Amino acid sequence: MRSSNGRTEYPRRVGVVEDHAVTIAGLRQILADEPDVEIVATAASVTELLAVTRELHLVVLDLRLPDGSSPIANVEQLRAAGVETLVLTSGDEPFLVRAAARAGVLGVVRKSERDDVIAAAVCAAAVGELVPSMDWAAAIDSDDSFAEVDLSPRQRDVLSLYASGEPAARVAKLTGLTADTVNAYLGRIRQKYAEAGRPARNKTELFKRALEDGWLPIPRRRR
């Protein structure tokens, strides 16, 4: 984002997507003495934030949000609005970090990092610089062995319903398929995951695979 004279605008406008007021207040305090960045908007979801403003250079994004949205969907939504993303996370759920890394964020920073590390990361990302970290690098490295599974739209529907807890008979009713066809789909889905080296032998494992690939919303955080 540049001014009419072609110079880069400062301070850089930062949005925060986070549902914990304490975290937002802490981030404001960390950045209070940074003249090159300014938090101009906060919200509990990407959709809510973009409804407030799209005039942003960077969004600091938590990975687990109350609307159940996936990191991939959130980063894609921000990129469509022309905004880059820096992830600020507790880091205790590697599959969410991996999903964010796959979506193309500028970096991943733990909330437990020192204040100066977090401040430096936000300032760097606000001008479009990559922010290397062990979590981000590990997520990218592990992605090489994280084989994607190509499911058809119908297979995704069946997986989403079944993995979320619906019995096969109910999935058949909701999708307009026969019970035999649903079971055949589930068998093919399991086979595809097995061939990718990502076992899905039971409903629990199917649930995990559906979460990893974004076919199910992220479970809401317990209060």
Amino- and carboxy-terminal Cα gap: 38 Å
How much beta, percentage-wise? 5-15%
Low-confidence stretches: 1-7
CATH superfamily of the largest domain: Response regulator
Helices and strands, in order, run as EHEHEHEHEHHHHHH
Please give the number of β-strands. 5
DSSP helix fraction: 40-55%
Description of the molecule:
- Residues 13-126 form the Response regulatory domain.
- The modification 4-aspartylphosphate is found at residue 62.
- InterPro entries: CheY-like_superfamily (IPR011006), NreC/VraR/RcsB-like_REC (IPR058245), Sig_transdc_resp-reg_C-effctor (IPR016032), Sig_transdc_resp-reg_receiver (IPR001789), Tscrpt_reg_LuxR_C (IPR000792), WalR-like (IPR039420), WH-like_DNA-bd_sf (IPR036388).
- Keywords: DNA-binding, Phosphoprotein.
- This is Response regulator transcription factor.
- It contains ten helices and five strands.
- It is elongated and about 65 Å long.
- The two termini are 38 Å apart.
- Helix 1 (21-31) links the parallel strand 1 (12-17) and strand 2.
- The model is unreliable at 1-7 (pLDDT under 50).
- It folds into two domains: 12-143, Rossmann fold, CATH 3.40.50.2300; 153-212, Winged helix-like DNA-binding domain superfamily/Winged helix DNA-binding domain (Arc Repressor Mutant, subunit A), CATH 1.10.10.
- With 223 residues, it is of the alpha/beta class.
- It has helices spanning 21-31, 46-52, 71-80, 94-103, 115-126, 134-143, 153-163, 168-175, 179-195, 203-212; strands spanning 12-17, 37-43, 58-61, 84-89, 107-110.
- Strands 2-1-3-4-5 form a five-stranded parallel beta sheet, with helices on both faces.
